[in-house]
Design brief:
The chain is mainly beta. The protein has two domains: 2-139, no CATH class; 160-269, Beta Barrel (Cyclophilin), CATH 2.40.100. It contains three helices and 18 strands.
Amino acid sequence: MSALEVLDPGPLTTIQDHGRPGWAHTGVPPSGAVDRESWARANDLVGNPDAAAALEATLIGPTLRALKTVTVAVVGARTADHTRTLQPGDVLETGPCRGARAYIAVRGGIDGEPTLGSRSTDLLTGLGPPPLEQGDLLPIGPEPTRPPGSPRPATPDRDELRLHPGPRDDWFTAAALETLRTATWRVTSQANRVGIRLDGPPLERACHEELLSEGLVTGALQVPPSGRPILLLNDHPTTGGYPVIADVASDDLSRAGQLKPGDDVRFAPA
C-alpha cells in the first residue's frame, strides 16, 4: 500500500540503500547512499533494519504528503535531525540541506522490487527506480521489530579529507603531489552522484603515456588532461583511463558526499 505522495521532488531525490557492491566486474557501480553515516542515522531513528531503503535528497529536500500514518526521520536538513509521526493528509516539507544531501527514512523502509539485490537508484547505468517525480506514490515495507532509536550526534567534522596515495601517484611530479596536499580546492557546479570536479592549480604529470583503462573505486581522485582532479562518488564508472593520484580514506567518504558547489576542500595524508 502506498504511504507517501510526492508533492514536490526537489532538484534530485532518489531512493538509496546499501547499494550494489560486488558487481564492478560487470560494469555496475556500487551506488547506494553517498553519505552512509547520515543514511544509517535516519534508519536508526525510525527503527529500520540496517539495509532499509530511504530517500536521498540533493540540495533541497522533497515535499511529501502522508496517505496513512507513518513515522519518518529527517537527517541532514537545515533543521536539527528529528523524527515525526505523520497522520493521513499531513505534509512534510524537508527544506534546504545542511550540506549537499539529506536523508528521509520511513519506518518500514521504502519498498520496491530490488535490482541486483538493491533498491538504489543508479544515475550512471539507470538501474533501480528513477528519481522521484511529482505525483509518485511511495510504498513502505512491513513494520520492523526494532523500536525507534534516539538521536545520536554526527561524526565531528574535520577541515580535510584524508588521502591514500596511488595507485598512479608516480605518474605525477613531486610538485604536483605537494600541490594536492597544500592547495585549497573548490567544488565546481559539475558535482553529482557520479563525481565532483574540483577547481584549483593543475597537477603536472611526470608520465605522459597513454593509460589503459583500470578499475576505479569510490573516492578515487582521477586527474584528466586539465590537471584538475575529479573525486569519484558512488555512481562512478567502474573503469577509467585517467591516472588516479590518490583515494579518499573510506572513513571520510560520507563527508566527501556532502560537498556541494562552491565548497572548499583540502586534503591530508591518511
